[in-house]
Amino acid sequence: MQQLTLKYQNEDDKAYGLAGMAIALAALDALDRVAGVSLDSDGPMVTFSNEFYFSGSPSVSPKSTWNALLHNYYITSAMVVSNVMSRSLVRLKQEVPDEIRLRVREEIGAEGRDTCALEDDEIENLYRKTTTYMRRIFGNSRLHPAIDDFARALSCRREMSGLEIIDELRRLQII
User: Which pTM value belongs to this model?
Assistant: First the structure.
């Protein structure tokens, strides 16, 4: 039996992680912020469009700026959680190990403190919201065949644009 780790074990594991992240982006209606994904990337597998990256402006209110940062933090947190859930719940057909879940929680917490100056209770609420939502998706065994197909499509094609991801997820009736 394979054990889930934070590092990808093989190409199949990596494809399921990327599939999970793309599905999370679709679930959060954030695929418009994705330029593309690539299994062969030396850096991050997801490339965001300009809409995702924050560029400060004196004409934007501090509250709007903070809300944009918070929303992007929520998106990236959901991507991390869904990567792990897709690899564990769908690919390996087992629960996410406690040590992985706790490590993800720690990383999400550090990012929330650094990026958005969130307090621990705010981070915990966002983490619970994220994990509950993503568990409804990746814990739904009726979706597993479509998620399997999407991971295979990513493995085969190696890269997809944001629009191609939308087309593929619609074809598989995931969105």
Answer: 0.92
